[in-house]
Task: inverse folding
């Protein structure tokens, strides 16, 4: 298995632009998680899905953030409009018995 | 509430053993995990232990669980430069809940 796949790996954008991060979980995993990691706040859980249904989105910072999981093999995290304070590494993870992380998307908002 | 605590830094000489400690608060945790994050990379699952186990060994790694004290430790024998990373302790309160991560311990290897 290729593991959790995220794209893009790096994203540089200007403030106000829309950003879409993508994730393909490991086949057969029924949970999908989106995290954000910064030096200041560490690793934060944003939202997670079970069988494509959002279970807990209490970690989503603002209405500018939204996440979808239209099917078992794909999820997106969207930021619209983006702001410089959104700059971070965004990880997607999926789990069956144990949780595996993707390589992350490094987002820089100028 | 649920919380996982670990020290932020640890320095160890190459060849010595490293012991990274962690405490958690939820006694219903079913799984406890150690993840490793190398610079510029994602979190990699190192090992995990079921809550009904006291110890798990995997090559240079030894995980000890003291359920009474809610204390988890990771011992790395013969520490190498490649072990330099951030190590995250994490707990899963029950099968359907999200994993709770600590803030990570940065392991620095001294020559």
Result:
């Amino acid at each position: 298995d290729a593991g959790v796949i995220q794209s893009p790996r790096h994203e540089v954008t200007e403030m106000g632009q829309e950003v879409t991060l993508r994730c393909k979980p490991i086949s057969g995993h029924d949970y999908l998680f989106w995290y954000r990691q910064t030096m200041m706040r560490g690793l934060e859980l944003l939202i997670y899905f079970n069988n494509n249904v959002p279970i807990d989105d209490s970690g989503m910072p603002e209405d500018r953030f939204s996440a979808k999981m239209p099917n078992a093999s794909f999820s997106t995290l969207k930021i619209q409009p983006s702001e410089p304070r959104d700059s971070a590494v965004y990880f997607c993870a999926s789990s069956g018995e144990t949780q595996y992380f993707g390589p992350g998307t490094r987002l820089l908002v100028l | 509430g649920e919380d996982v605590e670990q020290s932020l830094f640890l320095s160890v000489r190459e060849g010595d053993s490293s012991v990274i400690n962690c405490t958690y608060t939820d006694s219903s945790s079913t799984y406890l995990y150690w993840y490793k994050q190398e610079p510029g990379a994602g979190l990699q699952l190192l090992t995990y232990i079921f809550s009904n186990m006291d110890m798990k060994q995997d090559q240079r790694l030894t995980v000890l669980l003291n359920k009474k004290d809610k204390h988890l430790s990771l011992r790395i024998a013969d520490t190498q430069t490649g072990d330099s990373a951030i190590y995250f302790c994490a707990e899963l309160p029950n099968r359907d809940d999200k994993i709770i991560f600590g803030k990570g311990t940065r392991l620095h290897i001294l020559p």
Summary: The first strand of chain A starts at residue 5 and ends at 7. The interface with chain B takes residues 33, 42-43, 45, 48, 50, 56, 91, 93, 95, 98-104 of chain A (CB under 8 Å). The mean pLDDT of chain A is 95. Chain A is about 0% helix and 55% strand.
